[in-house]
Predict the structure.
Amino acid sequence: MTSRRSFLRATLATPLLLASGACGRSSRWQSGAFRKPATSRVAILAAASYTGPLVDTILDGLKLCGVQVQDRRVVLKPNLVEFDPASPINTHPAVVAAAIDAFRTRGAREVVVAEGPGHRRDTEQILLASGLHDVLRERRVRFVDLNEDQVVGLSLQSDFTGLGRLYLPETAVKADLLVSMPKLKMHHWAGVTLSLKNMFGVVPGSVYGWPKNALHWAGIDQSIVDINSTLPAARFAIVDGIVGMEGNGPIQGRARPARVLIFGEDMVAVDATAARVMQVEPSKVPHLAQAGEFLGNVAADRIAQAGVAVDSVWQDFAVIEAFRHLKHG
Amino acid sequence: MNDPLLTALVDARNPDGGWPTVKPGPSTTEVTSLAVMALAAASDPTLGSEIAGGRRWLLSQQQSDGGWPSARPVTESSWMTAPAVLALSTDASSRSAAIQGGRWLLEREGRGLPWYARVWFWMYPQSRTSNLDTELKGWPWSAGTFSWVEPTAYALLALKKVRPALPASRIQARIEQGERLIYDRVCPGGGWNYGNTRVLGESLAPYADTTAVALMAVHDREPREEARRGLRVLEEVMRDVRSGLALGWASLCFDLYGLSSAPWRTRLREQYGQTRFLGKIKPLALAVLALHDGARMVRG
């Protein structure tokens, strides 16, 4: 039995990979529909703790990146997965609080916080347990559960999944500025989970379930790219890297302080920079490599780095065995 | 009608007769189904028009294939067919629609592993990241995807309500396999997560709401050890839970098993007083259902 199995391993592995769709197709987006910037500005700013002057740090980040906020309806999309008091799973409520204050200071017409957790239906419990509900109540900010928001059907603007069309929540689709606020984390299926992967949370559970399993079947990396190519709202990213997660993220990894916040309008460039902060080679992360072809910049020489230098703050984030090849060197 | 939760639920109704997830918002199948059941459980003669209006809204949303979509503009029949069947099965005027929904559920099943993945795992068994029996067919959230605990539990509850009207051998087979799937997905420490039990060798923790719904789906059977342990786990997990959603499901679950739900009902009222369930209508409907002995509405 074992020898027959070994023989089949040798003869069938490549055809199986082909059948599973692991090999690429060509021309998955309309050339001309996307304009990748020649260079992208990304700011890395030091932030030692969650009790520091985070509003000032975020105001500095907005200014360095030159993002337009005045009179815009801003939707902040943190990463809320589930709550474990011992683990840095979610974007810290202090960072969300500071972002609300900073965007209001810069003249936002409205600030809304919105998220659709990926496998927990009980958003009410996550908000209460994580402390985010207190932040929202104190600031009188509306929260939208994107899993249950009104949806609109959109044709996908790239074709990595073959899904053709997705229902997406109106709150995210109609935002003037959609701000992805991920945690700096490794991810056991996608390699890293940053501002692009964070957009999985806009896909409505009411249509696709908890987990959003249709995206798993279509390919996680492929879905990340198609969702991000399709969301029409202007985008900005603020990565919570004050305390990140290494190893078996996004839930069961270990806390790893990096003591930074990372900002930028080009989410691909932000994620490439955040990956470098974790000493991960971004061009080896499949969804970053794919998005880097048409949505934004991955190459370091195409990223205008502001704030502190990557190599002054980078940390050797541990990876699970399957992603050892992502590490620098 | 002097119950503030009941009043709030009635007030949350949309002009079209259905209920949204939050106000303002479009009516959805799941929340309307739970609201109709909750108002019916309240046995208040002044609520007849609200209940009838909710049922009419549900009937207006049924698709030609017998199923229900989630909410407009979605038109594909979905997992929300199960709560609609539950809500419509107890009234003579809507029972035939519920039976059509039951037929749709009978034909709906989760997807197994594709052939190349089966061959791959046969060749590389160490590459399997979970120990689930992927051959078991329960119910998926959306078409063409795996079976998961909550839609399977919802479907089991619904099918058990309309069982006599459906082909006996087919429904028996689906119910038995669905129940096997529920038990296959028990977390190593007891209770239920969303559907996985381990990821990369690490055990997943049970969730209160999923555990309660899974237990409800098998309540009519002689309790297996996993169910008895699940009830103990649910009680433990609930100590740290504050949401109306989990408190509502847990109260209904303990009622179905003949256990005291009094502490959970008290906490439901207290929690509503403190947070208004963050404006969400589904936990409000579940709370009204639980506070008015609504377990009988889902009993098979």
